[in-house]
Amino acid sequence: MASFKPTKIQVYPKLGEKVTQDTLYWKNYKAPVQIKEFGAVTSIDFSPVTPHNFAVTAFTRIHIYGPFSQEPVKSFTRFKDTAYCGRFRSDGQLLVAGCEDSVVRLFDVSGKVALRLFKGHTKAVHLTDFTSDRYQILTGSDDYTCRLWDIPNATELTTYTEHTDYIRCGVTSKLNRDLFITGSYDHTVKLFDARVEKSVITMDHGQPVESVLLYPSEGLLVSAGGRHVKVWDLLKGGQPLVSLKNHHKTVTSLALSSNGQRLLSASLDRHVKVYNTTNYKVVHNFDYAASILSLGLAPDDASIVVGMTNSILSIKHRKNQEDSKEIAGQQRRRPSYRVFVKGKNYVPKQDDYLVSKPVKEHLAKYDKQLQRFNVSKALDTALGTYIRFRKPEITVAVIKELDRRGTLKNALAGRDERGLSQLLNFIIGNLVDARFTPVLVTAAEMILDIYQSVIGQSPVVDRQLLRLQDLVKREIEFQKDLLEVLGMLDTMFASSLPRKEVPCSGHFEKERCKF
Amino acid sequence: MVEHGDIRVVHCGGSKINFRDPVITHDSRFLLCASGEAVKVFSTSTEECIHELRGHTGLVTGVLLRPSNHLQVYSSSLDGTLRLWDFTDGILIKVGQRFQLVAVHLPQSGDQMVEAQELSAVLSGVNPNPAAIAFGRGVRTCRHKDNKKGGWNTFTCVACHPKDDCIATGHEDGKIRLWRNFNHKKEYTYSTLHWHHSTVSSLCFTPEGTNLLSGGVESVLVQWRYNQESERDFLPRLGGAITHITVSPDGSLFCTSHSDNKITIIQSCVKVSAVIQGLVKGDSIRTDLMMDPRSKALVLNGKPGHLQFYSLQRDKLLYNLDIVQQEYIHESGLQQFEVVKAAFDASGSWLATVEERHQKAAELELNLKLWAFDEQTQSFVLNTTISAPHDAQITAMCFCQPTDSQTTLLVSTSKDGHFKAWQLAAPAHTEGPSWLCDFVSAYHGLVPECCSFSADGSLLAVVFQEVVTVWSPSTWELLTTLSQPPGAVSDLCFGRLSCSKYLLGTTASNLLCWNLLTCSLEWTTSMDVRRLVADPLSENMAAFCYQSGSTDLFVFKPSEPRPLFSHKAVCSGKVTQAVFAPREEMLESCEESSQWLNRSQLYFLTQQMVNNISTSAEEKQNENVAMTPFYLLLGKHRQQQQEHQDSDSSLWAERTLLQTPAHVLPSTSYLCSMFVQSLLISVSDAREEKAHAEEEMESEKEEEDSEEEMESSRSKPELAAAAATESDTPALTKAQARELRRVRKLDHSWLAGLLDS
Questions:
Q1: How many helices (H) and strands (E) does chain B have?
Q2: Which of A9, A166, B330, B742 is spaced 20 to 30 Å from B191 by Cα?
Q3: Does the pLDDT value for residue B684 go beyond 50?
Q4: d(CA A265, CA A255)
Q5: Shortest CB distance from B325 goes to which of A8, A502, A510?
Q6: Handedness of CA A471, A472, A477, A481 (dihedral sign)
Q7: How distant, in Å, are the alpha carbons of A294, B485, B490, B506, B512 from that of B493?
Q8: How close, in Å, is residue B361 to chain A by CA atoms?
């Protein structure tokens, strides 16, 4: 005597992206904090010292935000025109920023008025940075030059005029005070050495360079421009290592996660992509509401800050361990372990005779009803609120099982207005789901057959039937479009495949095969 | 073409055991059932087959215990004989010649046993509505009722209450009616019991008459209390539809036989104690015949949604593998999931199955399942389920053959015009390996009919109607196409070992052989090959050709023009399934004609049963299989003597002496000397002779009181030999044989005494 075999619930593959360690890590952020700035956010820079404030450059202002406050801790507003590229010094004491009016300003983070003004550029300065010895400033400008300045005297040390277009990005070496890198709209990235006062390595990016980034080891350089992100090996004299083309609009900003394992790139296509730096595959993707201009990542990946063209600054903070623990603590207290092991750890003595208890098989409620051939009740159970919304596959599996038993018609028949509208609601909600369509179409046809005589008696049901009709019509249109696209693709593939003669021999062969 | 006399077709199992009601013996230890041309005796506790009572030459139609001797059983057969057997020893006692017997029933009215002479009243030709016959007191009235009620409410079965004046009838509409007061004409009353939703197929009263058992398509055994009909017990999910119910004479055991060739033994209506399962043959064998490479069991689809593993050596079902894993709904006219295709890989570690359910007005439901062999549980465990692997029915499926290759590959072809290759994907980080689609291809929108891998797995041939396409599985390139119009290729087979360069195909009228090195047709012969099978261990191939109502078998090597073996009319009807089963140990036969059977055996399936082609040498070997200590002691002795007697023809002399009428014999003095001389040659050792003589003296005495007892050790082989030689002539009756033996012994002892003096 075989036991009752329960209804098989089809396991469907999870749609969407797969859950990996990376997705878990990068999804572990709170809902973003959105702050409205005065204009497009062009630059975000984190202070290297705790508490890791960050400077946000937007329009004519630079705001400094604390790690948790939503209000700026400090503002620098003494710019006559649009400010660019506010950056902290490595001790977090000084801040430098360029400006549309070609003057470079140096601020004390605690002060308000500029400590020094560096005048010499003739056009807007988009690049400013401190060298690693903390006494010099690197600037790059739209007048095609980049310059080194001495902070104490506020005098210009050297001018480099090798670029032939705007200089929009650059970075100084953290290990060597004489090395710095600039990227320009003339498609090149140049590594300069202040000791020889000229560039030592020139790399051709192929597009106007929007952003450059050095690895902490400074053996690798990342440059972004156009749709490409390129990685260069500096130790091999600027040899291209890999070229990534994952965005479909210009990549504007780059960042590296704190352990150097992941690279982030932000683009005008409103995405931030996370790459694995060993194989340069995209492991995660963030979506934002508008084109992204700047991206900052706090140390330990504690927060992701993104500035967009619609002048919104979006800050995502990482979820704390305590937060998740709190959620766990709120759960209902379970019976103690003692309750469950009661009597189970009894070791039988030598003379004891062991009577084995038959294992009671657990059956779901709808299975028990199916076992008793209570088909309508089984369908009612499967249409219960929780199952219907949370696990529609169970409802569909029960409908399929009833159909297999040939009793679906009986189960569907004899429902009142409420029951029928519930059933129709479920069908409307899930009919176009490709996984459920074959089963639900049968059920829908049966419902129409059974209840066609009472159409027009209930406005609720009539409305739903109209919705169903509309849904089916739209779905058919949609499928038609898809088939058209498929046909187009087929022709394209067929024409792109090389024609190949199949080796034929033997006079018996009448037919030749061509792809 | 030469016929080979020493190779013949042997029926090796798979006959029905649910054809007629089984019989339980008085002591409830044995169960007897008709099975093809034999009666099988099963033990009710161990499910083992103890004896097979062979002797009938037609289908056995009935089995019945002899009321006067509870150790004997009658069997009737379509060959027109009625045989009486001793089932504990498995010996034939008596043969009765009658007309064609369709059923045997012995009436048993009240406390009066009906004697054997009533056998002449056995009903011949039970009419198409078997319910119209009841026995004892109810026969006439029952017929009467049938006429009255027929039409809308047909009887399907009938049972008499053992004590009361009551008859229970089962009806087609699922009702059971209890008719009372038959002895008073036209005053009968009836009551109706209703539980079954469709036809009641069997009814039975327990011996005491306290309970009524009924069963039907639902496969639920219902036990009704007699006189308290509202109370009933159920025993659900017994298997296939119940066809017969019997109760042991003491009422302790119930026994139900099912439509899926199964007999279930139930202890006091609560517990299934034993299941005797024969080879299940459903409506059709959809899967090929296959051999499980591990258990060497024959595999084919059995009861709905299951794959059965059937051991041919033991003629026993090993186990059923549940493929569909769904509750079976016992209702006629319902479309169920059926296993339609199955394939094993070469090592037996993977099994692929296809199940489908086709409902009118709904689309085809198709599942491809892959099962991995689990070493721990020694069974197949579901690894991957692929729902809707193709858009239409799958026409063929095969695994890549080589055992040493790293990747396992499965190819399935479908009526949707595509063939797909499935590959075992590398294990994902959490789960084990699973199967994924590796390659999809089509050829000019034609429907692929069958596919085959070459022996080394380097080539895949897929047939698209008239065109055979050859692919390379490593690169999935189309290498070449072969075709030989007209006629679509229906079966395809690569040569093996030294013939691996050949590819064989069959069309409706031709057998074709291509050479793959030159891509040209090597030879072709005109025959209607229905099934082409390749031996996995040799180059040989077997082709079953259908010709004018019967099937011929040809065994050949693709490289040689002359067939190795041919057998006209192997069986009547078509053979659609056949398989080569590798032998466990190689047979050493030097005869050229039977050498092809040295490595493997050829099994094929006909409408009725599984057949095997075996050689005479193998038969002998089978006889010698049981090497028990008893055999060592007795068997050798017996063999020696048998050889002895065969050589000296003493037996012949004795028989001529005894059977020839006295008036045509020469004078006694002349005969006496000849007779004595023959005995002198047969007995060379005087001492042995003495011992025998003494033995016989004793046995003679014994024979007086126990007539059923067999003779002493000396005379037994003689009789066996006699039976063997005379098997073609009409067999001696028991009485004749006994008389002969007595006469012979008398003579012999007397002569021995004479010699001694």
A1: 9, 50
A2: B330
A3: no
A4: 6
A5: A8
A6: positive
A7: 66, 18, 10, 9, 10
A8: 9
Contact assessment for residue B507 and residue B489, using Cβ atoms and an 8 Å cutoff: yes
Q: What is the rounded distance in angstroms from the CA atom of residue A96 to the CA atom of residue A84?
A: 9
Mark which residues 432-471 of B lie under 8 Å from A by CB.
Answer: 443-444, 467, 469
Q: Residue A405's closest chain B neighbor by CA?
A: B329
Beta bridge partners of A328: none
In degrees, rounded to 5, the angle at the alpha carbon of residue B723 between the alpha carbons of residues B719 and B729 is 140
Cβ distance A53 to A73 under 8 Å? yes
- β-pair type (A262-267, A251-256): antiparallel
The two tokens of residue A215 are 């690895």
Whether A370 and chain B come into contact, CB under 8 Å, resolves to yes
Report percent pLDDT > 70 for chain B: 68
Residue B452: closest CA among B465, B437, B469 = B469
Could you say which residues from 486 to 505 on chain A have a Cβ atom under 8 Å away from some Cβ of chain B?
502-505
Cis amide leading into B486 (omega within 30): yes
> Which residues in B lie closer than 8 A to residue A4 (C-beta atoms)?
237, 327
Residue A424, min C-alpha distance to chain B (Å): 20
Residue A12 C-alpha from the chain's centroid: 24
Q: Which amino acid is at B255?
A: C
Question: Residue B413 pLDDT more than 60?
Answer: yes
Separation between Cα atoms, residue B735 and residue B724, nearest integer Å = 18
Close Cβ partners of B11 (under 8 Å, ≥ 6 residues apart): B36, B609, B610, B611, B612
Preceding amide of B629 cis, omega within 30: no
Contacts of A256 (CB under 8 A, 6+ apart): A213, A215, A216, A222, A262, A263, A264, A297
E strands in B134-206: 155-160, 166-171, 175-180, 189-194, 200-205
Taking alpha carbons only, the member of A66, A23, A19 closest to residue A315 is A66
Q: What is the DSSP letter of A28?
A: -
Angle between helices A417-430 and A459-496 (to 10 degrees): 10
The average pLDDT across B186-210 equals: 83
What does residue A377 show for φ and ψ, rounded to 5 degrees?
Answer: -65, -40
pLDDT tens-digit readout, A307-354: 999 999 999 998 877 665 555 556 667 778 888 888 778 888 888 888
Helix, strand, or coil here: A452? helix
Mutation test of the interface with chain B: which of A404, A493, A512, choosing the one with the most B Cβ atoms within 10 A?
A404
pLDDT digits (tens, 9 = 90+) for A2-22: 678 888 888 777 766 677 888
Cβ contact A180:A196 at 8 Å: no
Helices and strands per DSSP (H, E), number in chain A: 11, 28
Give the integer Cα–Cα distance in Å for B29 and B70. Answer: 12
A510 touches chain B (CB under 8 A): yes
- The pLDDT, as a whole number, for residue B277 is 81
The C-alpha of B253 sits at a distance from chain A's nearest C-alpha, in angstroms, of: 16
The string of pLDDT tens digits covering residues B121-177 is: 333 223 333 333 334 333 433 444 443 444 446 777 777 787 777 778 888 888 888
What pTM did the predictor assign?
0.66
Closest residue in A to B485 (Cα) is: A510
CA atoms within 13 A on the CB side of B155: 27
